[in-house]
Amino acid sequence: MKIIKFNVLLLIVLAAIGFSACKETKQEIPWVELIKNDSLEGWNIKGGEATYKNENGIIIGTTAANTPNTFLSTNEMYGDFILEIEFKVDSTMNSGIQIRSNSYPFYQNGRVHGYQVEIDPSKRSWSGGIYDEGRRKWLNTLENNPEAQKAFKQNSWNHYRVEAISDTIKTWINGVPASHLIDDKTASGFIALQVHSIGNSKEKLGKQVMWKNAKILTENLSKYATNSPLEPIITKNSLTVNEQKSGWQMLWDGKTTNGWRGAKLDTFPNEGWVIEDGELIVLPSGGAESAAGGDIVTTNEYSNFELQVDFKLTPGANSGIKYYVDTELNKGPGSSIGLEYQILDDALHPDAKLGSHEGSRTVCSLYDLIQADPSKPIKPIGEWNTAYIKSIDNHVEHWLNYVKVLEYERGSKEFLKLVSESKYAKWPNFGMLEKGQILLQDHGDKVSFRNIKIKVPKSKNE
User: Fold this and answer.
1) Digit-coded pLDDT (tens) for 34-63
2) 3-state secondary structure labels for all residues of the chain
3) Is residue 125 left, alpha or beta, with left meaning phi > 0 and alpha meaning psi from -120 to 50?
């Protein structure tokens, strides 16, 4: 009898030890609470004029009329992290949680932009999807994930887990995998809670979104990261959801040389260019213009178009994106002739101080003709930048990282005067082709390209 009592006592002690050990293990996870006490300490409001308050550890956002989206953002910036948070939203509202987001004066007057984990109580049920606020719109939708769509609980508290590690973002809603995205557009930024704009809707005035139990991990993330069974959506060298809907096409497939040839060749160059890890790279050859592999051009010609290209410079590098190119011009040494979006290390390459017009050979400028805005949002050497060129009915714009840096009218008096004062004066009718090829320049320096996309507007007869 004593032995039985001893064994029972031993089991109770072991169970207590085991429970204590489990409790201690849970407590070892170094979560940092983001919502403190009954205040909004550590947070600030950006964007619109919706209101936020903290009641008993619950942040409550309330809609306001005639104001843009409003965000309650952390003061601190986060790169890699694991976030858990609970939320409850009015069934008539849309909301979201921003991650790796930013607000700069030069970007649409401070507009908040970056990844958003969607909160969507509508019939669409895309809660847990990933939207690129203020930039590319939808990146990871949920129409092919019915389990996640069903996981959202209407008019009740829901739980998100978000893992943003390196170029991968994974989300879970109430424990169900929702999104799995691989995208490296933005590496760090603040976290923010959104109250969506309602315009002048009286029905949505005063509606609320609530958040609680927000906590974050920023260290030893591999120890706590979770595998997702979802097939990842990879944005590199592919079209986003909205790009597909609006008529964009890939101009380079990320794998082959299809659609491209040497500017002075019938085929793609045998040397001087390589394709590595989804990047189209012109190799260094001493800085000479079109002296190694040479420039490459599209096999098709374009009239009206929108072009987007990611580029990455090495220190001191020079290159360019040309448009309305005629490869029959300048069969001799040097580059093919066309209008050029300059790609340059302004700090180290001497060309930045040259040009027929002051500043006209700096990065993003219309080469030798028009200087780009000196306050352009160029990223450091070695990081990816996004060039965007729009040419519709002779109105041309150069953009860098979603900010317009110059615009001009082809054929205008001002344009023709600039040409007459430039190195292009010797080329009759320079820059005035009705259509031409797109060119990536070999200037003898290592420069990488990816995500090369084009949109050609439909003609009025289509």
Assistant:
1) 998 889 999 999 999 999 999 999 999 999
2) CHHHHHHHHHHHHHHHHHHHHHHHHHHHCCCEECCCCCCCCCEEEEECCCEEEEECCEEEEECCCCCCCEEEEECCCECCEEEEEEEEECCCCCEEEEEEEECCCCCHHHCCEEEEEEECCCCCCCCCCEEEECCCEEEECCCCCHHHHHHCCCCCCEEEEEEEECCEEEEEECCEEEEEEECCCCCCEEEEEEECCCCCCCCCCCCEEEEEEEEEECCCHHHHCCCCCCCCEECCCCCCHHHHHCCEEECCCCCCCCCEEECCCCCCCCCCEEEECCEEEECCCCCCCCCCCCCEEECCCECCEEEEEEEEECCCCEEEEEEEEECCCCCCCCCCEEEEEEEECCCCCHHHHCCCCCCCCCCCCECCCECCCCCCCCCCCCCCEEEEEEEECCEEEEEECCEEEEEEECCCHHHHHHHHCCCCCCCCCCCCCCCEEEEECCCCCCEEEEEEEEECCCCCCC
3) left
Q: How far apart are CA 295 and CA 290, in angstroms?
A: 6
Strand partners, 190: 101
- Across the beta sheet with 95-102, the strand order is 43-47, 70-74, 190-195, 95-102, 113-119, 130-133, 137-140
Identify the CA nearest to 116 among candidates 92, 95, 143, 88.
Answer: 95
Evaluate if residue 16 carries a pLDDT over 90.
Answer: no
Which two tokens mark 29? 């996870």
For 92-118, what is the mean pLDDT?
96
Q: What is the pTM assigned to this prediction?
A: 0.89
pLDDT tens profile 209-246: 999 999 999 999 999 999 999 999 999 999 999 999 99
What mean pLDDT, rounded, does the chain reach?
Answer: 92
| Closest-CA residue to 194 (of 306, 331, 327, 67) | 67
- Give residue 251's pLDDT: 98
